[in-house]
């Protein structure tokens, strides 16, 4: 293939798109104001989760809604002013909490995650880091049997899509994770899930492959993007990059939470909200360890073994992307995590905070912008970008190359929200 393509955004989505397009023969420039993998892609739990096919707006949400609206849950917090300012998104999100939409979304996400998992494994082999993928799965843990019983729809969905799971009692949980406190009544072992003990480093490894094969990585702030003949002209901040403009044939927007503001200049009002999330890394005694990531369902947090400690990640906070941090959710998660595992001192000077961009149907947009030929979108991956990045790139690469998509791309079309 021939043609120059600029990929905007060097998180897991953008880096995967750059690698995919490069391998298809395009001349690719990857642009970000920061180094690859230093924003949202840095802060996750490192789980490539086969089980992340369940949208937040599943039919069981309605029973949980009164408690969630109390705004004291560890798994979910919200800024009332932000929710009020985004009522159209909220209405669209709740409207889709029904079985028909649930079935459609789970099928689409299952296709995307299975494709992504295969691509992750392929790239890990090429990069020589396959041995760094933890293949011990991860655990969904339930302090109360009643909570486990309420998860029947989710467990049935896993069975429907052949997600490899095993139900655990308290003794079996202790056998798998002997250093966890025996406070969990039930567990579900998601066996066909992988994890990586430094997610930012995995993104950097992909980016290093891209540059080693001739790809151009440009660290610069994007000042403007406009049509130029049959292509596009990118204007970069002179203070961050010596070359003021770049002319390309096509552009891929993979800017995560920054895509909403960026696309307004093209007249697109993208209904993205921000699932903000916090993390803190902790040290722990060397004789104590976690063998795999664990998700405390009742506690509303994930603990994941990292290369230099244990990472505690929170659930969702709906708030403006740049509003001040509210550490109360993280404090509640830490208290619950300390009941489960002997955390020592925090290893970070302050908690990390990132924003995960989410569309009302919990599916990303993967495809061409409706009114701009050559302007491609890979946005809205909510909290599962790490599990869906390579699959997103594979779909986008096939669409740009005018080939058949490896999976059904219809559920990810931009036109369902923007025209």
From TrEMBL:
Enzyme superclass (EC): oxidoreductase
GO function term, MF aspect, one: oxidoreductase activity
EC number(s) from the headed UniProt entry: 1.-.-.-
Domain FAD dependent oxidoreductase: 4-397
The keyword Oxidoreductase is assigned to this record: yes
UniProt keyword terms in alphabetical order: Oxidoreductase
PANTHER family in the record: GLYCINE OXIDASE, SARCOSINE DEHYDROGENASE-RELATED
Protein name: NAD(P)/FAD-dependent oxidoreductase
């Amino acid at each position: 293939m021939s043609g120059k393509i600029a990929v905007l955004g060097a998180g897991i989505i953008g880096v995967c798109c750059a690698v995919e397009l490069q391998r298809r023969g395009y001349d690719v420039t990857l642009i970000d104001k920061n180094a690859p993998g230093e924003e949202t892609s840095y802060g996750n739990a490192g789980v490539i989760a086969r089980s992340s096919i369940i949208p937040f707006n599943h039919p069981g949400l309605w029973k949980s809604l009164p408690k969630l609206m109390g705004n004291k849950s560890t798994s979910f917090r919200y800024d009332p002013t932000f929710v009020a300012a985004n009522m159209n998104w909220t209405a669209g999100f709740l409207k889709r909490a029904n079985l028909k939409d649930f079935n459609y979304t789970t099928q689409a996400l299952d296709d995307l995650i299975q494709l992504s998992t295969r691509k992750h494994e392929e790239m890990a082999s090429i990069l020589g880091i396959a041995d760094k993928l933890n293949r011990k799965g991860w655990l969904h843990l339930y302090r109360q049997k009643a909570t486990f019983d309420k998860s029947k729809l989710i467990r049935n969905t896993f069975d429907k899509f052949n997600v490899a799971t095993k139900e655990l009692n308290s003794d079996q949980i202790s056998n798998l994770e002997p250093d966890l406190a025996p406070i969990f009544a039930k567990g579900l072992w998601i066996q066909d899930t992988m994890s990586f003990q430094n997610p930012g480093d995995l993104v950097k490894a992909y980016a290093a492959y891209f540059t080693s094969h001739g790809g151009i990585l440009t660290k610069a702030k994007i000042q403007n993007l406009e049509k130029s003949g049959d292509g596009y002209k990118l204007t970069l901040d002179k203070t961050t990059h010596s070359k003021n403009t770049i002319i390309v044939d096509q552009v891929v927007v993979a800017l995560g939470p920054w895509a909403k503001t960026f696309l307004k200049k093209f007249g697109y009002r993208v209904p993205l909200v921000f699932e903000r999330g916090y993390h803190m890394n902790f040290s722990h005694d060397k004789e104590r360890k976690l063998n795999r990531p664990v998700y405390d369902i009742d506690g509303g947090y994930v603990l994941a073994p990292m290369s230099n400690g244990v990472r505690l990640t929170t659930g969702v906070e709906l708030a403006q992307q740049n509003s001040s941090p509210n550490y109360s959710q993280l404090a509640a998660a830490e208290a619950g995590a300390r009941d489960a595992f002997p955390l020592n001192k925090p290893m970070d000077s302050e908690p990390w905070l990132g924003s995960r961009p989410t569309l009302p149907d919990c599916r990303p947009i993967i495809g061409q912008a409706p009114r701009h030929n050559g302007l491609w979108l890979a946005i809205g991956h909510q909290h599962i970008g790490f599990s869906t990045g390579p699959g997103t790139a594979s779909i986008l690469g096939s669409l740009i190359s005018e080939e058949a998509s490896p999976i059904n791309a219809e559920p990810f079309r931009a036109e369902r929200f923007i025209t």
